[in-house]
Structure formats: structure tokens, C-alpha cells
Fold this protein.
Amino acid sequence: MSFPKNFYWGGATAANQLEGGWQEGGKGVSISDICTGGTADRSKRITPEIEEGTFYPSHEAIDHYHRFREDIALFAEMGFKMYRFSIAWTRIFPNGDESEPNEAGLRFYDELIDECRKYRIEPMITISHYEVPFGLTKKWNSWTDRRQIDCYLNFCRAIFTRYKGKVKYWLTFNELNSATSAVGGLLNQGILNEIRPMDFMEQVDVPQNRFQGLHHQFLASALAVKLAHEIDPEYQIGCMQIMATSYGLTCKPADQLANQKQNQIMNWFCSDVQCRGKYPNYIRRYFRENGIEIQMEPGDEEILLAGPVDFYTCSYYMSGCQTADPEAKKGKGNLLGGVPNPYLKASDWGWQIDPEGLRYSLNEIWDRYQKPIFVVENGLGAYDKIDEDGKVRDDYRIEYLKSHICQMHEAVLDGVDLRGYTPWGCIDLVSASTGEMAKRYGFIFVERYDDGTGDFSRRRKESFYWYRDVIETNGEAVL
Ligand code: BGP
């Protein structure tokens, strides 16, 4: 009993975190391009105007824009069957609202996709991954405005048409459910309620805007599913959520209820709408109690019902606990709320490591939706170092990934229809939450550092060879 035949082993990235070339080929400015670097202890900053002399990690990132052939060749050397990446919206529509796509941007992804196909690597494309055009933020505060649906659909039409026959798997929005908490407002939705320089963690949060934005994104996702199937019936469209597995801190019923609430809002609300095509009942009380009123138009419910996704995907890094005790201390680095689990250890960024939580959640997801599942992000952000002999000995990363693969295997034995696994940041890239290079996830080390130095050279880590064996044996090397 191993992993299913044709299981998609691979890796995942996002354009804004690895491409660089932020003004090349006619690319416009995305919300990630106005974020400065930060560290685990110092928040990155948002600067609506680019400041001279300030370091913006996305501008050059790891220079994948110029080195993608070398990178794809390394992925192929590991035996990747799938590569999940995103298309930068601003390469195709620089301001977001143009009527015609930018040919140079389309051509870049032609080449990238062709390079994958050369090695028989199946692309999985995230349509929107923390890269909303800043033009749309300035114009109408991004997804708060219903007109953004048309801009997004133009973008979808351009890429669905152009890459027809070469791509099969698409994801409408990265980690859509991050927008159920303040942290997803800018990154996921491009919403900036006050346009002025500020610390990333000090954004002005207006929950009404986030949830109205989500309504527009739900409609956009449903319409994109319909459009994709019209353009190519072979297309498979998925949702993508953060699976923030959560437990009650104690068996006190009040803690269990607090946990159930957290799960409903954080882990299920968005995927319930995207997988089932309608709003769940429990959200009404949440809206009522939080003063949220969704503006719906006649026909919206029908649109949602007609556009459920074909499959479910998620990221999985950590778990947390919920308690009814308002005094309980929150964990460091846990952007998603919740208190630390006394039974688990954490990464250097305070993310609690919980492989069994992955098995637990995969079972829950499968029971709920009965749709194929991919784990499209997972991994350990860690400080790596190059030893004197030039090797990067990242046995801690191997340990992390191995334990998660074993638990995915258990989930498969439990009967979960798991189709693929694309660990995050298969090549070192810029961290989304902190904007730093020092938090590395890759099988491939990139010589790029937070002071802007480094020659971008690539080097295989120990985990590179280990993962190659995992793929070659369809997982048996670790079971
Ligand atoms: C997810 C995002 C990625 C990513 C990853 C790791 O939330 O989809 O873009 O970067 O988490 O997070 P970080 O980079 O903050 O360590």
C-alpha cells in the first residue's frame, strides 16, 4: 500500500515571491511590490510610493524571471510531476483594468509553461496569489468594489484562452480564507482602507470590507469555473484555503464550542461557498454579531450555485488551539489567532509543527466535500547555512516533510482521495508574512540575502536528494 499511482509529487511557488523583474516586460505594480523587507521581529512596511534606498524584496526576489529555465531543470532533476506557480496579474494587465492583455507578459508564461511540459511536469496555476494590481487598490479599493469581478474575468479569459491545451489545473485564489481575518485584507484581497505608509501589522481593518470583498471573490470564482469549462471542458478548477487545523484547548465544552466556531469561520466558510455553491447557515449569526451586511444582487445565489469548484486544495503548516478564556495568551507568530498547544513544538517563527493534524484535517475535508484533494503547500521555514564544504545540511527540513508525508499516507489509507503534494517554496524565496529571505523553505538554496546581497546562484541542499528519492519511489523511501 503506497501512494496512488500517478500521484502528483512536486513543489509550489508564487510569482511575487520569486520572479523579480518587477518592471520588465511591461509589468505593473502589485500590492506585493509596495511591501518592504522585514524580519521575524520587525514587521515589513507598506509604502504606497516607492522609497529611494529602501529594500523591496519582490523587485528582484530570486530573479526567477531570468533564471526560470535553470530552476525548472532542477525541479525536473528531482523528478517533479507537478509544479504549482502563479501568474502575476500585473504582467498580463499592468493596472488591472485594461481591456487588452499585455503580450510580453503572456509570452513569458508561454515559455515557462513550455519549459515545464518539456520535462512532463504538469503545471498547476494559481490565478491570484497575493498579487492584486495596486492600480485597482487605488482605483476602488480592490475587491470591495463589484466592478473588480469583470477585471478578474478578463484576466481569466486571457490566460484560459492562451494556455488552452497546455494546462489543466487552475486555482482561483490563493488562501481565500485568509480574508476572514485581518491578515488577509491586503495580501489576499488588495484592500487598503487608508493609503499611507504603515507597518504591515498595523493595517486599518474594516471587516465589512473584507467580507463584502469575499462575496465578490466568491462570485468571481464561480464565474471563472463556468468560463473555464466553456473554454476547455478538460479544465479542472480548484479552490485554495489555509487549513488552520484547530483543537479545543481542553475538553471543557466551552472550549470545544469556541473551537467549533473558529473552524466554521476560518476553515469552512470559504470552502463551503466554493465547494457547495452557497452560503452556510452558521455565517448569518457571525455576520449579525459582527455588524456585517453583505450587499447581494438578484441572481448572485444562482451564480454561486452554478460554479462550484472541481477540487479542493490547501496549504498546511501548523495547528493551534482555541479556548473560551479571553485571558489566554496567544502564541508567537500565529497570525491566525489561537493559543499554543502544550504537546507540540514550534518552528523558529513560532509555527507549531503537527503532522498528525494534517491527517486529521484531510479526513475532515474529504468527509465534508467528497472532492479530490491536493496539499499544495507545506514545509518548514528555517534558517539554513552553507557548511564549509559547501553543503546545506537541512535534516530538520527532511524530518518535517517526512513526518507530514507519512501522515498523508495514513490519510490515503483512511480512504481520502488525495491526488498530489506540492511543498511550499521548493526553491528558496521571499517570505510572504515577513518579507525576508532568511526564512527558507527550499530544496534548493539561493544565494540572496536580506541586505540585498548575493549573486542568486543555486545550490542543491541535502533535502534535494532526499526528495528526489521520495518521488522516485512514489513515497516508499519514507514509509
Ligand atoms: C502561505 C502563502 C505563501 C507562503 C507560505 C509561507 O500563507 O500562500 O505565499 O509564503 O504561506 O509563509 P511565509 O512565507 O510567511 O513563511
In short: The domain at 8-478 is CATH 3.20.20.80 (TIM Barrel).
